[in-house]
Design brief:
The chain is mainly beta. The protein is built from three helices and 15 strands. The strands form three sheets. Strands 3-2-1-6-5-4 form a six-stranded mixed sheet. A six-stranded mixed sheet has the order 9-8-7-12-11-10. Strand 5 and strand 6 form a beta hairpin. The longest helix is centred in the C-terminal third of the chain and has 10 residues. The model has no long low-confidence stretch (mean pLDDT 91).
Length: 187
Amino acid sequence: MSGPGKANDLLAQIPKTGKGLPPVHLWNPDFCGDIDMRIARDGTWFYLGTPIGRKPMVRLFSTIIRRDGDDYFLITPVEKVGIKVDDAPFVAVLLEVVGEGESQVLRFTTNVDDGVEAGPEHPLRVTIDPETQEPAPYVHVRTNLEALIHRNVFYQLVDLAVSREVDGQRWLGVWSGGEFFPIGLEP
C-alpha cells in the first residue's frame, strides 16, 4: 500500500475543523497496512525514502499521528496506516524559560511548531541511550507521544539544573509547572 498518491489520499481525509488537533484518539478505522513513511531521529519525515520538504505538509501529518503500544500510525476517520518512527515523532527544538526556581515554567516548541509546558501533564524524562551511553531526554507532547529534546535544548536544561534529594539520592534536575524533574545523578 504505497505509491506517490497514498500520502495525498491521507491528507484529503483529514477533516477540516477549526483550531486544535483532530480527535485521532476517538477514531478507530480499519488498519489498511503500512506505508513507506518514516520519521528519523532528527525529526525529518521521509516518504518513499525522500525527505518531505514542505513544512506545512509535515505539520499536517503530525496532527494525525497516534501511537498504540510500540507502533505508530497515521489515522483519519476512515483509514489507519502504519509508519516507522526511529525514536520519537517530534523533536523539542526551542526552550523558553519563564520565572525561576520552583515557580519556573519550561515551554518547549517542537520541530512541527507544537508548544508544550513541562509539568504534571507533560513530564520530562531522561533515559540513557543504550548505543551511545548518552542521556536521551524527552518531554511528553500529547497522548502517548513524546518529543526527543534536541541536544542544544538539553544543554540549556543542564544550565538550569539545581540539586535536590530524591529517594535518598542527590539529583540534578529542573523545575517546571511546580514539579521537579530529575535529569541526572549529582556527581
